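Changelog entry: the FAD-binding oxidoreductase record was regenerated in this release. Current contents:
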Amino acid sequence: MAESTDVVVVGAGVIGCSIALELARSGLRVVVVDKFGGAGNGSTSASSAVVRFTYPTIAGVNAAWESRHCWEAWRHHLQAPAGEPLAAFNRCGVTLLDVDFAPCSLFTRHFDKAGVPYEKWNAQELSERLPAVDAGRYFPPRPVDDDEFFADASARLGALHTPDGGFVDDPQLAARNLAAAAQRHGAAFRWKTEVTAVMRRGGRVRGVRLEEGTELSAGVVVNAAGPWSGRLNRLAEVGGDFTVGLRPLRQEVHHVAAPAGYHDAAGDGHAPVLADMDLGTYIRPEGREFLLVGGTEPECDPLEWLDDPDDGSPHPTVSQFRTQVTRAARRLPGLRIPNKPRGVAGVYDVTDDWTPVYDRTELAGFYVAIGTSGNQFKNAPLVGRLMTTLIQGVEGGHDHDRSALAHTCEHTGQTIDLGAFSRRRRPAASTGTVLG
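Regenerated structure tokens:
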């Protein structure tokens, strides 16, 4: 059976749903195809959904700062009806401990250009503002079985605090909100089906074939398949001119009870998100009583790269739970370490420089929004607009490879050079971690 549409988006995570919404808003007929049974059921569901601005590139900072304005006015962004349940942005702030290999100055020079408010705290101010936090310097991160792990602090740390950061409370609901908005603009969704072929003719994409045999004819196909994106690229026979590689990486986020009184010093009811690259963790509030603890890929930890993203177990392991939560307890002395692991695991789609690829490909009409590297949930509201700018420009005849397109942000007025996310870029400035 053959059907036709203007655009096929493969992947209904928060990125794919945002792209579907913005393309549908532009007047195009959009069909979204996803292997799962609903929006945000893949990697999105395991996201910690932190909204921060600490990227080592101006494009990354501008994207995150613009997206924060979208999250803050989420109902307006979606044009959602009054009764629709929505994901909520919690503006609790983000505090980044100042470490030598990713010093505060790496970010503040971009903050000054982008207009991101921030505060620089010395060690005394950090202890006064966050009394539950041990301000000791323990760098470099070590395995928790290392004899030096519990060595005394070598110094005390300051921090960079961005009061406008925070987190989104329900990442899967955020994806569903975007999907519902896209449907209001006419987008259709095909659940529990996979793409088995990318159709092409004369050097241009012509659509996709689904596993039940349906052929969806389309002049534009967008790969937003997350950790499954490499598989789709191979079907399309693209990627030969990419200068950055992509690999699936399994990661865990753990759920623990917050220390007694941890949030009491916060005026809005939540202590800030704490980014601790000194010990190799991040800590995010989860309501008033719990915390999420994730890792920042310290060099001492082996990374769980996958050949097939379907092989990634969704269940937390004892070893990773013990490692990450013990590190968190070193930073929060009042934190108790449970005997049984609790949390989630997901799979990142990681590029060599931990920076996404939002670009066209050598196959005309085939676009990619991939390599999100565990750090692009926050930018999802903007990514749909970036990809719409890209697709409209390239389909209109612009040579993006020769002269990169730019996107002007609605809320901040900043301009983002889309060449920063090119498949053919030189590796971007990066911390080599999920921080970007």
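The longest helix spans residues 380-395.
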